[in-house]
Amino acid sequence: MPSGPWFHFRRSPSISVVYGGLTNSIRGEGTLLAPTGLVELKLGGVNEDLVGEGTLVEYRYDYFTIANISNDLRRNVRAGELASDTWRFGVAWEKGFGYLLWDAENRPALILYKTDGIIWSRLDVRGDLDAAPGGTLLGQFEDGTRFGTKTEAGVKFRIAPLVIVDAGFERSIAFRRHIFWPWIGSVAVEGAGQWLIDRFVDRILDSSPAAVPVVNFVLKNALAFGAYQLRREKMYAPFGSEPPLFSQGFKVGVTFVF
pLDDT tens, 89-100? Predict the structure, then answer.
């Protein structure tokens, strides 16, 4: 079956456990949300294909995700900070290329990847919002499940056929309200750029395969970083809109492939 934007029919069932730390803020507001810890569970499937005359691996991981993002997972809240607890769920897909490290059966691989995802989150702020700078706006993200998106850049190391360890940097946004057409327009603008990069990488794969993992990683994540930097100011950038609840931070995890 041809690969689609969601799930491959040829994939190995996989489970991932992830831990990390995030900072959370609303651009232009003085609200000080304390840094939070994150624990995440992913359930999905991994697909790998040899490319570049068998010297490289093309990697894809499609999964469901559920995560808890809370101060209880990291450290005590300091004076002047607001504590929070968030439950998040959604779907995501990782894609990238990697290097096979040596010539052996089921040999290890170093994989550079990019993740895109659609998420829903429910925020609970612990503290006096009325007394906090920007608390009125922050309170509008509570009392409901908020739609959002995420991106992630990272490195995976397949140390055995059944075990992959990884480290990545995530950026995510949650919308106070979801307006469909401006969101689709924002996604389409970034998607067009990502499509052009895919076509460029395809040409490099034909001429200089060894450069593909690095070039693909740098170009695709640079575009995603720029898009999310704009969305930090305007959630539907380049279209006029309000700032979202923005989160970013590092994560480490382990994936078991069956």
Answer: 999 999 999 999
The one-letter amino acid code at 131 reads A
Structure tokens at 144: 């409901």
Question: Which domains are seen in the chain, by residue range?
Answer: 12-177+242-257 (2.40.160.20)
* Angular region, 30: left φ>0, alpha ψ -120 to 50, beta rest: alpha
How many other CB atoms are there within 10 angstroms of residue 47's CB atom?
18
Burial of 230 (0-12, 13-18, 19+ CB in 10 A): middle
CA separation, residue 181 to residues 29, 131, 146, 173, 178 (Å): 26, 35, 17, 17, 9
Q: What are the pLDDT digits (tens) for 28-57?
A: 665 678 899 999 999 999 999 989 887 899
The answer to whether 239 and 230 have CB atoms below 8 angstroms apart is no
Q: Say what the pTM is.
A: 0.90
